[in-house]
Amino acid sequence: MSKHLPTDQFLARLLNRQLSEEEQNAWDLDDQQKDLRNLINAADQLKVPHKQSKEDAWEQMMQRIQSEEDASPVQTPVIPLFTRLKPWMTAAAAVAVLIVSYLILTPSSSQISAPLGQQLTHQLPDQSTVILNAGSEISYDAESFAETRVLELKGEAFFKVAPGKSFIVDTEEGDVEVLGTSFNTRARDGKMEVICYTGKVKVTAESGSEEVILTPGQSANTYQGGLNTAEIANLDAAPQWTKGVFSFKKSDFSDVVAELERQFDVQVQYENMEGRTLTITFFNDDMELALKTICEALDLNYIFTDEDKSKVVLKPAQQ
Prior knowledge:
By secondary structure, this protein is of the alpha+beta class. It folds into three domains: 8-105, no CATH class; 109-231, Jelly Rolls (Sandwich); 244-316, Phage tail protein beta-alpha-beta fold (3-Layer(bab) Sandwich), CATH 3.55.50.30. The chain contains eight helices and 18 strands. The strands form three sheets. Strands 1, 2, 3, 4, 5, 6, 7, 8, 9, 10, 11, 12 and 13 form a 13-stranded mixed sheet that branches. A hairpin with a 2-residue loop joins strand 8 (182-188) and strand 9. The chain is globular and about 80 Å long. The termini are far apart.
């Protein structure tokens, strides 16, 4: 009896868990696909280690195969397996190789994003909680996270970490490692800032050349490949931004505008503001009030250039 092999399109939807309930039930009950089903289930247990790219995983696998071949003391004639298989078995074996490669090189990653103009609260598999600021995202392996407690962050987030073993936040600018604690991490535009609210936090520069341990009320910032620390007076229980409040002290004008754009999903145009700094507070529930606050501080005017108020131009008040 010949076996009917699944189509490429079916296998792609199967591997991405996109089958309908009817298709999944038919697949699970198809006796002709038992061997292929067992192979997929076994390969699904294989995972790519944290921080190892798909390319690195593939290269490592090929090097291992080559080293095993080089270590073989005697070269004996081998009859290729596929020549001894029936046609349907040859095709099934080829499909299986592709499936195993796909599963080895594709971890079960979850990506959580907060869109512009919104904040998002997400509970992680270990019961830790993360609040994402607008325009921020985290990614992690959903299946292994409760065991590894490792995630990647782009943007800004406040973490309330459930007690347990080490919890690691990986950013392009450095790593943050904690046990049970709460802390805020911002990693944008090549800069990182970490503030410890409770417990202890270990911060490591991306270069690995420096690390510091923070206690409540302390912060660390990346600077020229290293870390600077500072004390923060009158620290609240959580960052102000989680309550919709954004405060800046002698901050670059461009940083203030970038936050305004994230909070209100608006595009802001301006000229000749290089080197200008700003000390203000604005709230993310009223865009025009936030614009007025910025403009009054720097003697500017603002003009919306479209009907839905998604684009605004800032100009000196005398123009």
